[in-house]
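Blackboard transcription, Thursday session:
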Amino acid sequence: MSAVMLEINGLKATVASDAKQEILRGLDLTVKAGEVHAIMGPNGSGKSTLAAVLAGHPAYAVTGGTVTYRGKDLLDMNPEERAREGVFLAFQYPVAIRGITNSYFLRSALNAIRKHRGQEELDPLDFLSVLEKKLKQIGWDDSFLNRAVNDGFSGGEKKRNEILQMAVLEPTLAILDETDSGLDIDALKTVAEAVNALRRPDTATVVVTHYQRLLNYIVPDRVHVLAGGRIVKSGGKELALELEDKGYDWIKPEAISA
Amino acid sequence: MTSIEAQVLQPYKYGFVTDIESEDVPLGLNEDIIRLISRKKGEPSFLLEWRLKAYRHWLTLTEPTWANIHHAPIDYQAIRYYSAPKQQKTLDSLDQVDPKLIETFDKLGIPLAEQKRLTGVAVDAVFDSVSVATTFKAELAKYGIIFCAFSDAVKNHPALIEQWLGDVVPASDNFFAALNSAVFSDGSFCYIPKGVRSPLELSTYFRINASSTGQFERTLIIADEGSYVSYLEGCSAPVRDENQLHAAVVELIALDDATIKYSTIQNWYPGDENGKGGIYNFVTKRGACRGRNSKISWTQVETGSAITWKYPGCILQGDNSIGEFYSVAVTNNYQQADTGTKMIHMGKNTRSTIVSKGISAGKGQNTYRGLVKILKGAEDARNYSQCDSMLIGDQCGAHTFPYIDVRNSSAIMEHEASTSKIGEDQIFYCKQRGLSAEDAVSLIVNGFCKEVFKELPMEFAVEAQNLLGISLEGSVG
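(Written on the board underneath:)
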């Protein structure tokens, strides 16, 4: 029996600048170590908001509920503390930072996390060997490293870069926010393979996606349907196939009755 | 209020005052004061005449008002134009320098004592109105390089001074240059002989200490044919409620095949978070590429001063000469900067590059003002200009005034400009990777300034990055 990693109870959140705009309306979710969970749902259901709220994005205000991450109150931590505690968000729209190379950025981030864990910070040489090992593990070359962070990257390159960062930072809980959007089928496979290669029994992954396609490659243990700011249906991986087949409409009446 | 708008000022690190007895002239400005300064320095008569002429011309001028800066009127009669720490008249060695002065520069990270000196860097240390010490003088003399206090140069090399003083920035150039010409007290002088590549970085550190005192120094660098010198200036001042005036003049002359690289890290006291106090930095800097294939490169990192008004420029007179200007200017709280460059193309096949990075935070106002002028005879001239502005928060301002004046149709001109804002999204992205808000800002800003920082001498690039971090500390919550 694996340990519970993430326990969300009755989570409510609004847009920070508009308290009337409630997006999450009492969401429950439990994720155990070693598991992959897929969050699916129609546009505007709150999938990306859930990812952002878990990472502590200032654009959203939590108005109710609790989130316990490895026994700690996640909502009590600021975004950088969450990151240092092992929560990683692969952004739907990764942000560019001009003039800072990927490898410098990654080393700064890794060292911030290592410092938090009481580990020694890595100098550029040591870091390079860590990096090379990771690239090998996910089967990528080093062409990303000396380019500025996401600057001038294609959509697909940005998504791959998120996964590279995830590989290096070794999160305990990885949240992939529509990492499949904008990827062609080959890139999708590469990204999925990398995510699979990084899976460990003591880590968990939450995949937020519109489409079932990604789940052919990253096979989920649980699939949840998010609608109207709540999880309205949960099931095994076959639920994703059912959704692919029938769309979301058939769930909506259930959601209303629930 | 969003987190980005939250302002907390990091205390200015160099704001201490050195308690030292000084020799001052009375407040105010008139011909007697100028005669007094000249007499104190034991100057030859040509120089006194030059000063008086400048002063008489200054009386006919009015302060320029075209810059995008605002301040209460300056009372030029309330300023002390000369203040020098009392010490022995002639110093045979650095051991005779007042320990308090040595200690002051130590605190500023500029060790003057023999055993602690920065390797590879010769320093001229200017304290209020006088140069108190110059390191590695003898070492440089072996190469025929003259590097000394301006007043020593007046005594020991009067012919060079008479020949070149005011050659690039005439006393009549502008209001502040005229004022400086009338009352300048010291500064650095540097001559690199033919074919010599300076084995050391040369640098001058300016320190304002006395209150109610202005600092008016001149720097004159002459690079003879085929020579090379890299020169760096730094500066700081105590924290005071009053505004103090710093009106310097820098003149550079590069003869045939000579290169001068001039870097500035300007960290004058910027005033407090309410805009009280701080230095008015009204400076005229210009280099003349007199010779063929000569090159002058300005790099400046401007983080201090309440108000900055300066336009280091190049007169590209010699054929194939090159002018460069790389600038980072930061304004936080109530700081104002109106800075940029002038590139005057006169010779054939002359080239200029301008890279300006303006960063505004708090209620800071940052203006880039630049002139690129291609004269009739400047066949095949080229200019590339890039002006990037970055805004932090939504109460600051970025302004760009590029002037382009082309009189020769063979010229190729390029101008690029961008304005960006450090957004919540960028900060959040960095935080989500484990970085603190401060580290995130520092990272983003350093990336933005990278093209300029890579032009700085290695030893100072790190200092510049740290300085930038301190200047912006607290600008993002």
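Lecturer's comment: Chain B is about 20% helix and 35% strand.
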